[in-house]
Design brief:
- With 321 residues, the protein is an alpha/beta fold.
- It is built from 14 helices and eight strands.
- Strands 1-2-3-4-5-6-7-8 form an eight-stranded parallel beta sheet, sandwiched between helices.
- Helix 4 (75-95) links the parallel strand 2 (57-64) and strand 3 (100-105).
- Helix 5 (111-123) packs parallel to helix 6.
- The model has no long low-confidence stretch (mean pLDDT 95).
């Protein structure tokens, strides 16, 4: 079978010193399954490369499996460990620069230091942007304290990928329903809400060059763009203003990946609502199966031009590869 050339954007790894953070997601996953991805996460050799080769992935943009230092309470420790894991990833990238890129891991507890670390990772270590695992200490990236980070993101012209994480509190709607707490539903709600906070806070008015990536086919938001525009008009928005309709920011500042969603209808929706240049391939390795993701995108009922753009062209343009 001839594979469409691919760049994959949500492909995870782990550093041995970060498993304690990773363990904070144990409550979101079946106890019988949690931890089974350990060896795959630690591997940068044949196992990972073969999983790429079998579906035509030329390059994987690697990112630390969360939550990482987003769960660290000490600012100094978070800053130190983020730098540690970025140096670790850069070393692995340097061994196979043709196959591996990377998203920087940032300790946003200190936004100025996070901005400096992002610049180091992009300019000195050859990374393509950053992945941030949801909220940090109960704050979201629309908070004014993160303006120095967004300013640097804009100056560098690289994207921020918001990856799911647990919210700072477990609300009543998940009571007695552990299956909803995690990838089935709460992570989508949390990540979509994070993106909406950025839009409605005017983050993309202040930083029009900021670029945001959402996984899982846009965390349901492509399906809702019309309603976001419609209900924004009657919402209780106080003094909040936007320069454009909410949907316009998604079509200008937001990209989506296919990670963890191998279904034709959501793909068509994302292409039609966000734009054919804003949807990119991802597996969510090793938490999803490369075979399934690869075989699905090859057979999806989209045009050859769309397939080429989703599989490689859009990512190459956004990440300047």
């Amino acid at each position: 079978m001839t594979h469409t050339p691919k760049i994959a954007l949500e492909e995870h790894f782990m550093h041995p010193d970060f498993f304690e953070y990773f363990g904070k997601t144990a409550g979101n996953i079946s106890p019988a399954l949690f931890g089974k991805a350990r060896e795959a996460l630690l591997d940068f050799g044949d196992r990972r490369l073969e999983s790429m080769d079998v579906i035509g992935v030329e390059k994987s943009i690697l990112s630390l499996a969360g939550p990482g230092v987003q769960a660290e309470k000490s600012v100094a420790t978070a800053t130190k460990k983020a730098r540690q894991v970025n140096d670790f990833l850069a070393e692995e990238m340097s061994k196979r620069p043709d196959r591996y890129g990377g998203f920087a891991h940032l300790a946003v507890q200190d936004p100025k230091a996070a901005a400096d670390e992002l610049e180091r990772c992009v300019r000195d270590l050859g990374m393509q942007g950053a992945m941030i695992n949801g909220q940090t200490g109960g704050t979201y990236l629309d908070d004014d304290r993160y303006a120095p980070l967004w300013e640097r993101v804009s100056d560098l012209g690289v994207p921020v990928y918001i990856h799911p994480n647990n919210p700072p509190e477990k609300v009543a709607m998940y009571h007695d329903h552990p299956e909803l707490w995690g990838p089935v539903w709460s992570w989508t709600v949390e990540t979509a809400t994070h993106a909406l906070r950025l839009v409605f806070a005017g983050t993309f008015d202040r930083f029009p060059n900021a670029k945001l990536i959402l996984g899982h086919m846009g965390e349901t938001l492509p399906y809702l763009l019309w309603r976001l525009d419609s209900r924004w008009e009657i919402s209780n928005r106080g003094a909040m203003t936007l320069e454009m309709a909410p949907s316009t920011y998604f079509q200008r500042n937001v990209w989506a990946t296919t990670s963890g969603v191998c279904a034709d209808a959501p793909l068509r929706c994302a292409l039609d609502t966000l734009g054919a240049d804003r949807v990119m391939f991802a597996v969510d390795y090793p938490f999803e199966t490369p075979h399934e993701a690869g075989e699905w995108i090859e057979a999806a009922p989209i045009s050859d031009a769309e397939r080429g753009a989703v599989c490689k062209g859009n990512a190459a343009a956004l990440l300047k590869l």
